[in-house]
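User: My collaborator sent over this chain with a note saying "see what the structure looks like." That's all I know about it. Can you take a look?
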Amino acid sequence: MSEILETSGDWLDLREPEDAVARSLDLARAAAALLTEGPVVVHDLGSGTGSMMRWLAPLLPGPQSWFLHDWSSLLTGQAITQARPSDRDNAEISVFGRTGNLVDLSAEDLAGASLVTASALLDVLTSPEIHTIVGACIAARAPALFLLSVTGGVHFDPADERDAAFESAFNAHQLRDANGRRQLGRYGAPIASGLFAEAGWQVCKTTTQWRLDHHQSGLLGEWFCGWVDAAVEQDPQLRTEADRYRRDRLAQIELGEQGELGGLSVLVDHVDVLAWPSP
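Assistant: Without extra context I'll predict from the sequence alone. Here is the result:
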């Protein structure tokens, strides 16, 4: 997906319903069980328009205060001004915005945190950023719930002989050096998990998936076109085949919308991680 689409409110709004379905409820409930003393203070990293808060707050005890960290003041402002969710006891939560780069995050920024969260973040971070975030969580002794990190796996039905080449190029694209930042892609979640484990923390991981078909045709079409664009950017030799491949797959999406046989469905693999300090 294009970098513009990834960071826009429109893209975040489009993916929010599927994110809510895909995230691990088991890990969310395990995180809630760690919050034995109130009030609950949650720091959400890369918070965007607040989708993680809207999904998780009703699963956690209260009273709750959320601190939304994002590089974009526009997105955090949008999250703060929208209707706020209630906590598990149906009480309204408090929400605050913080704008800045995650590479500058410190233990002091997380002082008093009951839980640190992130959604669809680890795969777009650099190694220094992940080391900084994990280090800040460990120093603050704040449990971390990091959800929906992509693993690189994509499964199409029906399959196409061209799928593998575009998948390989897309995964390589995620590891590119963009504006001086070398993202970790599918290695982000394993690196974060390893850093917590090295510090003696307990780590629980579970696989999750986006499941896209004609019921999410808008998201499926946007995701697929962005996925192909990224693959072509990484490997220009795919350009000759890309237009035909895109046309064929979009036609399958349209078949699914019309209830015809031959519609396209896709599973996009993710991993969710919960880490917390040992007693």
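A starting point for your reply to your collaborator: Residues 8 and 75 are 8 Å apart (CA to CA).
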